[in-house]
Amino acid sequence: MKPAAAATPTEIVRVIVGTAGHIDHGKSTLVERLTGVHPDRLAEERDRGMTIDLGFAPYALADGRRVGIIDVPGHERFVKNMVAGATSVDVVLLVVAADDGVMPQTREHLEILGLLGLERGLVVVTKTDAPGVDAELLEVLELELAELLAGTFLAGAPILRVSGVTGEGLPALRAALERVVLAVPPRATDGPFRLPIQRVFSAQGFGTVLTGVPVSGALAPGDPVEVLGPGKRLRGRVRGLHAYGAPVERVHAGHSAAVNVADVDRHAVHRGDALCTPGVFAPEALWEARLTHLASQRRPLEQRQTVRVHVGTSEVLGELVLLEGPRLAPGASALCQLRLHEPVVAAAGDRFVVRRHSPMQTFGGGVLLGASKWRLKPGKGFVLERLAAEEQALGDPKERVRVALEAARGPRRAEDLGHALQLDRAAVEAALGALAAEGAAVALGHGKGGAAWLAAAPFAAALEAVRGALAAWHRDRPLLAGCPRATIRTASGLDDATVQAALARLAAPGEVVETAQGWARADHRVVLDAPAAALRRELLARLEAGGFAAPPVAQVLAELAPPLPPAACEDLVAHLVAAGDLADLGADVLLPRARLDEARAAVARALAAGGGLSASALRDLLGGNRRVVIPLLEHLDATGLTRREGDLRVLRAAPGQEPPP
Q1: 329 Cβ contact partners less than 8 Å away, ≥ 6 residues apart
Q2: What predicted TM-score, i.e. pTM, was given to this entire model?
Q3: Percent of the chain with pLDDT over 70
């Protein structure tokens, strides 16, 4: 990373060109002729004349803007390195040597590029000046290529003849390449930053440098970052950025970038790790996916095979679980789960390639739909429906949030949705706001973590569950004016936030009301039937007659032996308290309201002249017993008539006010 004049983002086109093809077909030579830079950086590569790892060179368009070219190895032993580079490519140059023709890695690389979702590219026939190559041979090769490319994304692509030695055909190749590059839609630069790391090194005076092609977001000097990988989360800060050989003030998705990171040890970082915006991504080992089995395979793909999974710059072993059937025919696709032996950093929409563990051979690939929380069982209809919805929502944050809410087992907060979907908070909140405006999502109230959210259908079900819980309560407990919220929560099976939101929604048009005893349907009225009305009269009369020495209510009820079940008797007492007929002083003491008013007046008169009143004196004054008098005094303290001074009670009066009557 040598100091140089800063390049502006407008000088860089957010497009990556990549090579592909068999070993010794002239890919690196072609890159050198196009860019003036030989992409082989390792001494071993130069000594052996064979590309082993990924190489990079900047390519200048006619107007001076630059794009990056990634050169990949062509040997079958280094396919994993080829995939690590190809995952970031937008345009491919499929290179075929005229003197060699279509070879095994020509076919495998083409299949891999298709699995990775490439849509644009050129076919370059190199070594047109080689001995024995004539016009007839070239025509036969182009017919072979047309047959090879039929049905692929390169069907009908221009086939350009080039000599890396003489330069013949290079002007036509440059013109065709520029047309294709400028036709590529630029990658979006919003959202959280993520860069699958291709290379790690130290530069004198700079420290740790991480290189790769960002797949989302943008980054600037000073930004906090984290390096994520199996069992690691390393926090750091961006010290500087380079792109295409020069320092820049910002790198974007689609730039080949070198990021100088402070506070991260280079020895702790490896290819396959990812450099990310903090707090958004996490390494995951279970991934839901759509898998395509290559049509070139001879046998069906069997259940639970051990595979090598290539995603981003990671390569990891895992188990492939087919979810739609016990096997997958060549050329077919199906939903599956990847159970990786080590977690990888990826996101929904990422492309992946799967190769056999042994022998190492590419047999399929596809697109990730999202991370799984648990192992999925094959053949579950509700799982397949959810995955189909996730697949349909790929690329649309609002729809992804909608699907996640509809599949949730309870309310979700924006932060939780962001972590699960690997979207930043702003994108999730914008999606939730749009869904709320459509009536597709409901905010359940605000707490420390912000509002919790439900999809419209689960919330509608929650409303019905609350309605049902209240109806059952009124049917079973008709003498009570309301149902406690905790009871509604238990009866409905809902969490408290959902119950609160449902009650608020039902209360707004007056369908339910809140009472002193809890929540009730607006049309609910407590009506005492003849047995209950008779018991009410007898109970109040007995308590009135007992005065301040009345026995506990349970004893009175036992003596009355009413024709009502115990639960109904308890509800009647609760109704009398709620209606104000009885005052509950605690400690199993209930007084008729008139008796309580009598006690307050007597205490106020006794204390009006000053002095204090002891418990025994009040007992004598009222003609009561200690069981009633002690809770009565505590009630008078709690309601502001008296206050305790030692063993006495005195009147409590605010400054400048008369004591309460």
Answers
A1: 293, 300, 301
A2: 0.77
A3: 93
